[in-house]
Amino acid sequence: MAKAKRPAAKKTAPQRIQNTVLRGVGGTTLQDRSAQSSASEGSTNPYYSTNPWGRWQEYVRWYRTSWEAEKLINIPVDDALRKPFKISGVDDGISKPLMDTYLALNVEQALRRAMIQERLLGGAALFGVFKLPPRGLSGPLHVRDIERGDLQAVNVIDISRITRSVIDSDPFSPTYDKISSIAISGIDTHCSRVCLFDGDALFNPATSKIFEGMRVSLFGFGESKLATLYDLLVRATGTQQGAYHLVNMASCLILSVENLRSISSTGGSAVVAELEKIVTQLSSMRAAMVEAKGVEFKQHSASFGSVPELVMTFLQILSAASDIPATRFLGQAPGGLNATGTSDLENYYNNVGALQRRKLMPAQRKLVDWIGASLWGGMQWLEMSNELEIEYEPLWSIDAVQQAQIDNTYAMAIRSFFEIGLIDMATATAELKARKIFLTNVDSKDFLSQGFKPSEPLDGVLAEAA
Asked: Are the C-beta atoms of residues 191 and 179 closer than 8 Å to each other?
């Protein structure tokens, strides 16, 4: 009689651990002690998910429920948009209507949303809503073709609505790796009609399929900024939760009763009820009754030790990993006897300045061109905007004493130029007014009318300027 075969034992898959980055060297629950470690395939980091919608949902959940994740995404964008940009190269009669329309269309709010979505999900786009041309959205949009009143709105298009993109894949073509059109909700749209935020994609879609084959990225966008910080984010929030539970158990009352089981089994429910009543009266904290000799109350206190330092250490590491200083991320004073945090903030503001130049300036220039062409007509706007430039005020704010020293330096330099005859009185006055050293409306002729007498070497220069 044939013996029944014993069913083969099922292989137990390695247990997944939250925020596992490495396997090997005891990095998994299998307690391995190998001499090498490798990237784990069992990590819960959304990057390893082959479902793009699942990745996006995970990132959004973190953004909506974790203040750390929200700050990591929002702070650089908010700082880049903290001060309004300036339009130079045109007179106030042009710059003021531009800025008024920019605000009326709520363009900055749309720009902020697009940049936040880019950092959170890896990409986004701003779509200019114009009166539909005869050739539809698939044709290019030239500034010269925009007529007055054409621009209706600027809409934020999230990454889930961009289903595909057309990119030149010929490495010998002058337009190689450049996007020519995208599909928004299935409608082909020329790239000239959008401000595209691609999430700093490292590879084009063709190359990405080779190096990132485990991930599905149909759109040619980059990855969320939370991807590289995800494991550390889990550790930081998990440490805070552990500290919170430790606080809840900081003071526990333990009631020890001899022969507790015997009392309960021999009908001593009244005794047990009385003991429970005593526990309730003594403390509103958690309490437990255990069997012991006699009846004894014991207060159990948890030891916090270095828990606060551990919580702050994880948050500081998270701050450093995101290139956001702790003074900005945590509102924490700089550490160390001689630390002022100036160098950290200076480096951070330099990074924000780079973000303004790389992301904001191209998008805002395109948006300003749309607005200007819609206000004055495309052909006229091209002539008006030849000298137009977009400038950003420094993010670093100086105090009144430092500003006075800077103003004095500029004033002395302008005076030197005037004394040697390099500039005249009108130019010197205009330069001082441009640098806001004069807050009143001062004209060069006012100095002569008030009996202004320069030093002896300046008589010839002043007479010539008058």
From this structure: yes
